[in-house]
Amino acid sequence: MKRIYVKEEWCLGCHLCEYNCAFANSGKKNMAAALKDRPIFPRIHVEGKDRITFAVSCRHCEDPLCVKSCIAGALSKKEGVVVINKQKCVGCFTCVLVCPYGALAPGEDGVMQKCELCLQNACGAPACVAGCPNRAIVYEEREALE
């Protein structure tokens, strides 16, 4: 399955992946109208300190703890992708607490959100990948590590 991978040594810490993600998931056709003068709620986050930065997003684990721990049954795995049913989410933050990668966060409405590889958007591929100026984020299939 294709997944998002980050080349930490190439990440500039510019946060453009976050803006592209927030825009792609806004449902609006104009980036300025979607993001100007308002807080953004991306599904990928740039972390780091000083000169070392990297993007954090869902790893779509083989056996995801977030899915197992969701008390409302809002998280599930479909065709290898961990997805959230926003109508079921009660905002208890259990998934946030158990995710070892810090991939889940509340959205603008308080409902949890995470990277779903832009499968529900018209992007065709993850917007963070397309918006990374240094190609530090890639969307590719890799061999499983044993």
| Most strands sheet | 2 strands, antiparallel
C-alpha geometry: globular
The tally of beta strands, per DSSP, is: 8
Helix % is 10-25%
Strand neighbour order, sheet with most strands: 1-8
Question: What's the short version?
Answer:
The protein is an alpha+beta fold and 146 residues long.
Could you characterize what this model shows?
With 146 residues, the chain is of the alpha+beta class. The protein has two domains: 1-57 and 115-146, Alpha-Beta Plaits; 61-101 and 108-114, Alpha-Beta Plaits (2-Layer Sandwich), CATH 3.30.70.20. It has helices spanning 16-24, 31-35, 65-69, 94-98, 127-131, and strands at 3-6, 45-49, 52-56, 75-78, 81-84, 105-106, 112-113, 137-140. The strands form four sheets. Strands 1-8 form a two-stranded antiparallel sheet. Strands 2-3 form a two-stranded antiparallel sheet. Strand 6 and strand 7 form a beta hairpin. The protein starts with a strand and ends in a 6-residue tail after the last strand.
How is the topology of this model organized?
Blueprint: E1 3-6, H1 16-24, H2 31-35, E2 45-49, E3 52-56, H3 65-69, E4 75-78, E5 81-84, H4 94-98, E6 105-106, E7 112-113, H5 127-131, E8 137-140
Antiparallel strand pairs: 1-8, 2-3, 4-5, 6-7
